[in-house]
Amino acid sequence: KKALTEIELDIKRYDVAAETAHQFITILALQDRFKIAKEAHLHSRKILKEITHRVNSGKALMADQLRAEVNLERRELEVEDIAHELISAKKILSSSWGQSEIGFSSVLGSLNLPKSLIDYSEFEQAISSNPKVRYFLTQQRLAESEISLAREESKNRLRFNAGVSRYERTEDYGLTMGVTLPFGGNNNQGKISSLIADKSRYQAEVTATEIQLLTQVFVLYQELMHSYHVSNSLTHEIIPRLEKALKETYKAYQLGKYSYQEWSSVQQEVYDAQFSLIDARLTAHKNTVELERLTGLAMQDYKNVQ
Fold this sequence. Notes:
This protein is mainly alpha-helical. About 75% of the residues lie in helices and about 5% in strands.
């Protein structure tokens, strides 16, 4: 029973650690998004200044300046939105530590993913160490011990007695012996039957929990692999090409071959791809946290706050 209590504490510890990790990496992602949003805002301000100069010199249309002003306003709103999300996320993380106020300015760490994934077979093997599986296995062992105790108590035991008797008539003494056999059958049979049923139920729970965990691990691992694929594609293929396309579009805009709208559109694609990369990495880390919760394997090292 003490072991069951310890396992229940393990389950709570796993859950609390996972929730804390989720909040931590969410702040990491928001910090990265905030950095990109700030850079986009500064870049939009720079573009507006350049376009205003071109409009004043008659090299660009007033419509381009108006679009650039709208774009700058949107960037300012985006920075403000992310800033609010970041404050809320910090508040939630602080409250999980029992703090009513935010006691840090930022978290330290990186969303960069490891180059290789841990093999799926290691997750399968680690399922047996999950606290929920250990809980039902311990319940099963507890039921077995209680069944043994109940059977021992239910045994009809012979009781022997011996003594000396004095016979008044003959003034003789005699040795007496006796055997007592309890009647009434096995009074613990109902209790034993109930414990056996509990044992079978716990065994079924173990099997059902293992199947459920294996299914969850499989699904999470598939999502993790997909997040890795998306992250690699964005990092090595999509973003580099978009950045190159942005440079070429800017050159064409300066030569009057492209409009501001076309240039701005490519710029937006670059920012969208960068945000998508953050989202893919965040999803990968969240899936990793859940895999750690289910298997107990330590797959990533979290940093700290400052």
